[in-house]
Amino acid sequence: MTEKLDVTLSVNGKRYEMKVEPRRMLADAIREECGLTGTHLGCEHGVCGACTILMDDKPVRSCLMFAVQAEGAELRTVEGLAKGNELHPIQQAFWDHHGLQCGFCTPGFLMLATGVLEQNPNIGDEELVHALSSNLCRCTGYQNILKAVKAAREEMKP
Amino acid sequence: MKAPQFAYRAPRSIKEAVTALAESEGMGKILAGGQSLVPTMNFRLARPDMLIDINRISELDFARPENGKLRIGALTRHAAFERPFFEGPLARLLADVVQHIAHVPIRTRGTFTGSLAHADPASEWCLVACTLDAEMVAHSLEGERIIPAAEYFVTTLTTALTENELLVEARLPLLDDSWKHGFCEFNRRAGDFALSMSLVALKIENGRIAEARIGIGGVEDKPVRAPDAEAYLIGKTGEAADRVEAARLASEGIQPMDDMHAPADYRRDLTRAMVRRALERALAR
């Protein structure tokens, strides 16, 4: 077994210290070491997008990074969206527009959409479809996800 | 699946990185964005003994025009090109092409030179490097080596880089305002690998084509140029009949791959359409 490394991750503003092998995926470290199981693993090769999180406010695939690489970065996961019992506008919009069915892909979509809308609050419809094409959903047919993100776009405008 | 075991190095300088690379005796791999390498490791198709993570080497984090060239350091992510950060046709070309590279989260991490080092036949950046005659700057313990695009691409996932070399930079020629570009790619789903794509850059003088660069990707084992079509277009206005003939010449000059995604004849036919549409887009600008 390869030597374990001391790694400190900052997730949703909280620090987590751990000892992990270099090959420990960031997604696994978030789920297992940090105990934040909202981030899901689907394909484990960067195609499905279920593991999408925000790293320094930009969406990344946490299955395509090693935990050790994320040291020093500010990570945000689905657990960091709501403020107590108050849902984040993107979560509320998914609820209102029935943007989920089984819910497996939802954390990835929420983080992708949050990152995209924060970076580009006035994103056009076409560009938004292109951005959302990054993630897979096998239940909804995507139309309600798109509706939800468009609604959140209006809510989140600064 | 999960990646197999490896030793991890995170050098802070190019010198440290190429030293680690030399010490690994061919068993080390450079980790940049990891958007191709890590899936390959998760599939256990790649099992490097050591990963040399270059993400903390700040001297590789640059992208700027300088002396007629755009210098792209090894930590420049795909996303850096989404909004032009300098003036001129090259910035517009790169902003156009980058939209076709995978998806937003992949573009956040993946790097320009990482794509060149990986050398997938369907890589858009490899097509750009081939079409514009990029220069690749490699470092090793022996020093610096500059490799022109024509000598750089060898075959699928294989380049002229030796196992001890780190690709530190790529240089693209800054195109002056007389250049126009057109890009067209066909894939079955957004973000998928291209079955065929073409990048065209035309230098227009007094309403006629003075210089033509036509690149084709996703078709052979590496990006290729279409020299017959390029020569044919010189002195032409680029009207519809010129575009059709250039596209025909380009599609007949290739030896397309034949695989589970598309038979060779289909790729040839697609290429004819891609080149014609790329020319149309270039001349419509």
Provide an overview of this structure:
The complex is a heterodimer of chains A (158) and B (285). With 158 residues, chain A is an alpha+beta fold. Chain A has two domains: 5-80, Roll (Ubiquitin-like (UB roll)); 89-156, DNA polymerase, domain 1, CATH 1.10.150. Chain A is built from five helices and five strands. A five-stranded mixed beta sheet of chain A has the order 2-1-5-3-4, sandwiched between helices. The longest helix of chain A has 14 residues, at 106-119. The mean pLDDT of chain A is 97. Chain B is an alpha+beta fold and 285 residues long. Chain B has three domains: 7-53, Uridine Diphospho-n-acetylenolpyruvylglucosamine Reductase, domain 2, CATH 3.30.43; 60-173, Uridine Diphospho-n-acetylenolpyruvylglucosamine Reductase, domain 3; 179-284, CO dehydrogenase flavoprotein, C-terminal domain (Enolase-like, domain 1, 2-Layer Sandwich). Helices cover 32% and strands 26% of the residues of chain B. Chain B has ten helices and 14 strands. Chain B starts with 6 loop residues before the first strand and ends with a helix. The model of chain B has no long low-confidence stretch (mean pLDDT 97). Chains A and B meet through strand 4 and helix 3 of A and helix 2 and helix 4 of B.
Second-tier CATH architecture of the largest domain in chain B: 2-Layer Sandwich
CATH top level of the largest domain in chain A is: Alpha Beta
Q: What share of residues are in beta strands of chain B?
A: 25-35%
Q: Could you say which structural class the secondary elements and strand pairing of chain A correspond to? A: alpha+beta
Sheet having the most strands of chain B: 5 strands, antiparallel
Q: Taking strands numbered 1, 2, ... along the chain, how are they ordered across the largest sheet of chain B?
A: 4-5-10-6-7
Strand order of the largest sheet of chain A: 2-1-5-3-4
What share of residues are in beta strands of chain A? 15-25%
Distance between the termini of chain A: 50 Å
Number of domains of chain B: 3
Secondary-structure element pattern of chain A, one letter each? EEHEEEHHHH
* Percent of residues in helices of chain B: 25-40%
Give the low-pLDDT segments of chain A: none
Provide the CATH superfamily of the largest domain in chain A.
Beta-grasp domain
Question: In the residues of chain A, how many domains can be counted?
Answer: 2
**Total number of beta strands of chain B:** 14
Q: Kindly provide the name of the CATH class of the largest domain in chain B.
A: Alpha Beta
String of helices and strands of chain B:
EHEHEEEHHHHEEHEEEEEEEHHH
- What's the number of helices of chain A? 5
